[in-house]
């Protein structure tokens, strides 16, 4: 194997730990050896833990200096300093939440209670600073120079800043805050009755992540009270359009939502090799270079006295390995969407408007905090903005109007369970030391600050899943529920936190596998009311199709015999669409009921969809018609009701698909009566939701809506094929059999800093892609922009990396795909060198043993 060696000589600086804001320096006790393998993965050998984390910081700054710096910039709420006005809303929120201020204020507690973690942060920051010192002497690499050229000053890191980055990552993995705001704004713009018709929380499937958790307790709400949220004192008599600025502002915050994922594990009894298996498929978007850096930290070999021998994915700007394996266990985090963030409507104390009211007339003080922003303008100059934030001690900040420009004069605060030492970092460090699944559960008891579902396995053959996080225990008051805005003067407020044992988990279930895909862990949402059970866990889960498909495949394979490596890969790369399976029958029914709407011109395109095998593979023709039809149908069906929604991507698609599926199913046995007028449409608002309100003088039927959307989608895609507006020719516009899904859906690869630096603009590469939002091998994109179908579907979120771990007691074996490369430097041989194998679904071996390295 080809490998490169790098030695870091011992640093002669003196440790500086007395001043929290001082740049980090520390003493390196012995040289650190870095071996870079053929994939560009650094294996960092050191004599102790401090040295290995210092080496990690140094290597991180070498491979991903600008990306590391940009995570720091984002966690400081300074992205608009580099990118301009478009990032200002995000900066306002981040500065309001004050990640860096919290990290600095809590540093002493971290150092007291978790000294080994504080030591890791000090060393990591010192390693970055050592590399920066060399850059200042020898010249900055082109990526960091691009930031300097934008007027950004690169300073040395403090350990508290690295801790602040980990806090930001935790918030980005909190799953549902922006969805809660989106739902609230939609509800206020629609009115109560229409919102109840359309804002569905129940998924279109009953797959759950932890079916054996508390199996004797039904999570259906049957026989329990149902909560109908009463209107908040916000619903002034305003047109829907008045809420659009607030909706658009919240959509910009989606940059902080760090993706989704699948993970699953199989017990030895179901594997042909008799060894447990763990899978991880984590989505963090598709920037290039990607959000992960693969690293191996070793402080236990060659006579080392440390505790680290871990390999896996690290985030730029934070020490350690977020997920991966040691020599005994492997762990795979996925976004869990447990709800740990609440938003409150605050009411001022009439006696003192700087104070806010709580239940029982209790008055709380607020503390004023000015935040100043340096915003880059298009001409390269900078403009200063100052925003006043008010903090409620022990609660959280009141969001400035700049964050959420709602059109009524009220104040909204946010409370997040992640503002607790040590955030998510303690569990990540403790996981790396575990030797069994039981010890990994012990490690997770310190986990807080993100909502992550962990799948786990050990070399003894145990497998497990845990949705644990520090979950607030909300005590309902009145008719308010925590998935909308809550009135601060009545609640519900937090009543401590839910016990560890009452948050969903599974260990060695009888079926012999665990699986999760961002879906409802136990079924709280299945009755459309997640608040009427013993515990409220969350509301904004994924649709559940991916978990249902994984469950079906695993059951089929385990029933037929033991799984082989080929079986495992096929499951992880599966592109079968359950959405197509369930929506195409409605298209077929519409064509059968209204043959006059299936013209001879449309018939070949209809046949292409209905004969399609439902696999969204790049070479298939069916998806090129099915998905545009589905999105057009959802558009025609619902966007006249969701008046302020114009663009449809991830969060919007989750919301709209719930509504679409619910009403198709709800009306399927009465559609003739509805069409004839014998039966009223069964909506609470009294509206016939199939009627497009934008067409005056005509009331559409369901079948008309379906077939009109089909004709529109076919016309759109034919134009795309005729005008060749896709990156690759779609096919003969008059012969749908020649169309290929991978030429309509593509992966665009270019340097992420190319937009701000001509030196980094570089070549753009396109790969045909496959999958969709509902398939285990997921691929999401913006489908509708400005109220219209887009010409080209650009993959925006998909597996950023994939792992398969075979839990061999003689040495855990891993295979991986990385949707990027290890280096951000265009002249580095490991710049985007792994994308081709990723795009073509080829696994690579993840080297762990010295003999392989």
The main pleated sheet reads as: 10 strands, mixed
Cα distance spanning the termini: 7 Å
User: Quick one: overall form?
Assistant: globular
Strand content: 15-25%
Mean pLDDT: 91
Low-confidence segments, given as residue ranges, are 10-20, 221-227
Our count of helices gives: 24
Q: Could you state the oligomeric state of the chains shown? A: single chain
Number of strands: 32
Helix content: 25-40%
Strand order of the largest sheet: 1-2-3-6-7-8-9-18-19-23
Structural class: alpha+beta
Q: How big is the Rg?
A: 27 Å
Please provide a brief summary of the model.
By secondary structure, the chain is an alpha+beta fold. It is 31% helix and 18% strand.
Structural account:
The structure is a single chain. With 853 residues, this protein is α+β, with helices and mostly antiparallel strands. It is built from 24 helices and 32 strands. It has a 10-stranded mixed sheet, covered by helices on one side. Helix 2 crosses helix 9, helix 17 packs across helix 22 and helix 19 crosses helix 22. The protein is globular.
């Amino acid at each position: 194997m080809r490998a490169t060696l790098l030695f870091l000589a011992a640093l002669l600086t003196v440790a500086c730990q007395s001043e929290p804001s001082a740049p980090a320096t520390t003493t390196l006790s012995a040289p650190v050896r870095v071996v870079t393998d053929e994939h560009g993965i650094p294996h960092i050998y050191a004599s102790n833990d401090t040295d290995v984390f210092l080496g990690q910081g140094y290597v991180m700054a070498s491979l991903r200096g600008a990306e590391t710096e940009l995570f720091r910039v984002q966690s400081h709420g300074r992205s608009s300093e580099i990118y301009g006005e478009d990032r200002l809303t995000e900066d306002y929120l981040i500065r309001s939440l004050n990640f860096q201020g919290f990290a600095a204020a809590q540093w002493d507690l971290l150092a007291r209670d978790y000294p080994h973690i504080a030591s890791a942060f000090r060393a990591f920051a010192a390693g970055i600073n050592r590399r920066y010192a060399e850059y200042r002497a020898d010249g900055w690499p082109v990526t960091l120079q691009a930031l300097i050229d934008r007027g950004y000053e690169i300073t040395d890191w403090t350990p508290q800043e690295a801790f602040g980055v980990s806090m930001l990552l935790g918030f980005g993995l909190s799953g549902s805050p922006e969805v809660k705001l989106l739902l609230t704004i939609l509800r206020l713009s629609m009115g109560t009755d229409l919102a109840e018709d359309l804002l569905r929380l129940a998924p279109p499937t009953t797959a759950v992540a932890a079916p054996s958790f508390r199996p004797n307790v039904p999570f259906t709400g049957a026989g329990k009270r149902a909560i109908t949220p009463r209107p908040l004192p916000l619903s002034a008599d305003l047109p829907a359009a008045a809420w659009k600025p607030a909706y658009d502002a919240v959509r910009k915050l989606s940059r902080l939502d760090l993706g989704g994922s699948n993970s699953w594990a199989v017990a030895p009894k179901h594997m042909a090799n008799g060894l447990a298996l763990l899978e991880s498929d984590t989505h963090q978007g598709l920037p290039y270079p990607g959000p992960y850096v693969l690293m191996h930290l070793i402080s236990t070999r060659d006579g080392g006295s440390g505790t680290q021998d871990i390999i896996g994915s690290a985030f730029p700007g934070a020490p350690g390995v977020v997920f991966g394996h040691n020599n005994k266990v492997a762990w795979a985090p996925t976004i869990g969407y447990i709800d740990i963030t609440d938003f409150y409507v605050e009411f001022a104390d009439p006696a003192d408007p700087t104070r806010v009211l709580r239940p029982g007339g209790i008055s709380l003080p607020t503390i004023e905090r000015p935040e100043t922003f340096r915003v880059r303008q298009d001409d390269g100059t900078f403009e200063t903005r100052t925003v006043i934030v008010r903090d409620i001690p022990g609660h959280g900040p009141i969001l400035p109007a700049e964050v959420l420009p709602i059109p009524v004069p009220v104040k909204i605060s946010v409370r997040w369970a992640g503002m607790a030492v040590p955030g998510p970092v303690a569990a990540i460090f403790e996981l790396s030391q575990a030797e069994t699944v039981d010890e990994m559960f012990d490690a997770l008891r310190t986990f807080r600050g993100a909502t992550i579902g962990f799948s786990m396995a050990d070399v003894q053959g145990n497998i497990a899943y845990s949705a644990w996080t520090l979950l607030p225990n909300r005590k309902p008051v009145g008719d308010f529920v925590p998935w909308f805005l809550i009135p601060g003067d009545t609640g519900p407020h937090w009543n401590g936190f839910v016990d560890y044992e009452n948050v969903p988990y599974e260990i060695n279930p009888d079926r012999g596998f665990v699986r999760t895909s961002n879906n409802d862990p136990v079924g709280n949402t299945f009755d459309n009311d997640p608040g009427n059970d013993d515990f409220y866990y969350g509301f904004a889960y994924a649709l559940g199709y991916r978990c249902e498909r994984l469950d079906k495949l695993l059951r089929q394979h385990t029933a037929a015999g033991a799984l082989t490596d080929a079986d495992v890969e096929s499951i992880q790369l599966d592109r079968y669409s359950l959405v197509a399976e369930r929506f195409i029958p409605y298209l077929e029914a519409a064509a059968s009921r209204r043959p006059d709407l299936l013209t001879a011109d449309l018939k070949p395109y209809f046949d292409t969809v209905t004969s399609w095998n439902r696999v969204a593979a790049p070479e298939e023709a069916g998806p090129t018609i099915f998905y545009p039809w589905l999105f057009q149908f959802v558009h025609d069906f619902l966007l006249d009701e969701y008046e302020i929604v114009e663009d449809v991507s991830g969060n919007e698609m989750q919301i709209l698909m719930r509504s679409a599926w619910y009403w198709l199913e709800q009306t399927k046995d009465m559609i003739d009566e509805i069409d004839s007028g014998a039966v009223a449409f069964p909506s609470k608002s009294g509206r016939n939701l199939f009627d497009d309100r934008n067409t005056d003088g005509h009331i559409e039927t369901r079948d008309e809506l379906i077939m009109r959307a089909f004709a529109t989608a076919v016309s759109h895609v034919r134009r795309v094929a005729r005008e060749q507006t896709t990156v690759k020719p779609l096919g003969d516009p008059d012969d749908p059999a020649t169309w290929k899904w991978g030429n309509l859906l593509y992966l665009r690869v270019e340097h992420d800093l190319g937009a701000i630096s001509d030196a980094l603009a570089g070549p753009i590469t396109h790969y045909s892609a496959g999958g969709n939002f509902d398939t285990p091998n997921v691929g999401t994109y913006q489908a509708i922009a400005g109220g219209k179908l887009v010409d080209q579907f650009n993959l925006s979120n998909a597996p950023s990396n994939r792992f398969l771990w075979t839990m061999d007691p003689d040495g855990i074996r891993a295979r991986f795909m990385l949707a990027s490369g290890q280096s951000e430097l265009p002249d580095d041989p490991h710049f985007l060198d792994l994308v081709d194998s990723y795009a073509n679904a080829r696994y690579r071996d993840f080297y762990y043993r010295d003999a392989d390295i």
